[in-house]
Amino acid sequence: MLTVDFTRFPIAPGDRVLDLGCGAGRHAFECYRRGARVVALDRDGEEVRQVAGWLAAMGEAGEAPTGAAAVAVEGDALALPFPDDSFDAVIVSEVMEHVPDDKGLLAEAVRVLRPGGRIAVTVPRYGPERVCWALSDAYHEVEGGHIRIYRADQLLARVREAGLRPYGTHHAHALHSPYWWLKCAMGVDNARALPVRAYHKLLVWDLMKKPAATRVAERLLDPVLGKSFVAYATKPHTPRRSAAKDAARADS
Predict the structure, then answer these.
(1) Total domain count for the chain?
(2) Domain Methyltransferase type: where (predicted)?
(3) Which end of the chain has the lower number of beta carbons within 10 A, N or C?
(4) Which long-range contacts (CB under 8 A, 24 or more apart) does 137-140 make?
(5) CATH number of the domain residue 213 falls in
(6) Looking at residue 192, what is its pLDDT?
(7) What is the distance between the terminal CA atoms of the chain, rounded to a whole angstrom?
(8) pLDDT tens, residue by residue, 136-191
């Protein structure tokens, strides 16, 4: 289940891509299939090992084109182990709402993104997320849980403050909002509740079969019920000052 729309966030063969806070690795897998050189980074060592295993299996099965490469690494999003301007694209999907220092995280993402590169940031959408918080404290009051809810303008302000230039937004996963409302209403750990199990089966069926009816329905509902808000931005090129101007500044 992809949250980033790769028609709006194009990845070309050979692009260096960082999936920052990769989780289960869904976006890293898609970039790998598109021929990118991918780094999937997360602080959860167990998830990193699982993602590494899936990436290796994809390579062995020939799911990635020649020249593509992928690695999963454990690391701290606030102190990335990469030089400046290391990546052509950075994905930060469903991460910022978990991190106390969201400005620091975004600053690190911008640091390792090359000038002219693209970044995609996704967070839970304000309306559906507010319903979840109202229905269940357990939904967010857990270790590593969501600590804030972003309005769209707040996230875009964060993006601009980091020195990025937004170029597009959209909402995604409208069909998932009612599922999470059901879970919150019946207990987030109560996976056996009949409505929750039934809706989960529907989502799995939709994911596997991709029927046209639900695809159309979700596109129509996304602007109203979309579970995620997605923002795309570029890192501008910094004009280089001439050596003469630099020398003049030093002498003044």
Answers:
(1) 1
(2) 18-120
(3) C
(4) 138/187, 138/188, 138/189, 139/180, 139/183, 139/184, 139/188
(5) 3.40.50.150
(6) 86
(7) 57
(8) 998 888 877 899 999 999 999 999 999 999 999 999 999 999 999 999 999 888 88
Dihedral, CA of residue 83, residue 84, residue 85 and residue 90, to nearest 10: 80
- Within-domain flag for 66: no
Number of neighbours of residue 240 by Cβ within 10 angstroms: 8
Does a structural domain hold residue 146?
yes
Whether the CB-CB separation of 27 and 39 falls below 8 Å is answered with: no
Amino acid at 30: E
The answer to whether the beta carbons of residues 156 and 170 sit under 8 Å apart is no
Does residue 178 belong to any structural domain of this protein? yes
Q: Which two tokens stand for residue 29?
A: 């897998």
Helix or strand holding residue 154 (H, E): helix 152-161
User: Could you tell me the pLDDT band of residue 239, with boundaries at 50, 70 and 90?
Assistant: low
pLDDT of residue 24: 96
For every residue of 48-66, DSSP letters joined together read: HHHHHHHHHHHHHTT-S-T
Q: What is the mean pLDDT of the chain?
A: 93
Phi and psi, residue 144, nearest 5°: 80, 10
**Structural domain contains residue 17:** no
